[in-house]
Amino acid sequence: MINDPFITIHSVMWLFLAVFMIHDFEEIIFVEYWMKRNYPRINERIPAPARRLVKNMSEVTSAQFAVAVALEFIVFIPVTYLAVEQQNYLLFIGFNALLLVHVFTHLGQSILLRAYTPGVVTALLFTLPYSLYLFYRMINDGLVSLKEVLYYAPTGLILLPIVLLGHKLGKMALRE
């Protein structure tokens, strides 16, 4: 195992929680205002199959969005603990792989709309470099191989029903 004198791999892994929250704070803060202001314009630009999803998102308040984020965060804590303390990397790698892919959804949205979209700034400034460094360190430090990262990555899809449940709970708990 190679030791980095500046930060341990365990510290890098725990930073997942901070990076996730920094990114999602941007989304929580801006999603409601941005959607109210931009929905009519973006509805014209998005592909027809995505319009229903965007319509649902246009009605989400920041508080409702925060419920989904809180549920994800609650799931991420034990998953990170298991990775750091028990060397169980399956879900940790999957969730981080999904977070990395999520960067490109933000970038794609901003390119498609030719505008700022909530989350794109922190996705590019925090999430992208963190994710690349995390996987580099995990592989370089001998915790996992590139093959294992690619093999474990699809487990991140387990997060999708959790996110949907979080949004449903947010809408149920915080109706306007």
TrEMBL record:
State the coiled-coil residue ranges: none
Origin superkingdom:
Bacteria
Entry keyword annotation includes Transmembrane helix = yes
UniProt keywords (A-Z) are:
Membrane, Transmembrane, Transmembrane helix
Transmembrane stretches, start-end: 12-35, 60-83, 89-107, 119-139, 151-170
Q: Which Pfam families match?
A: HXXEE
- Put simply, this protein is called Membrane protein
User: Which organism encodes this protein?
Assistant: Paenibacillus segetis
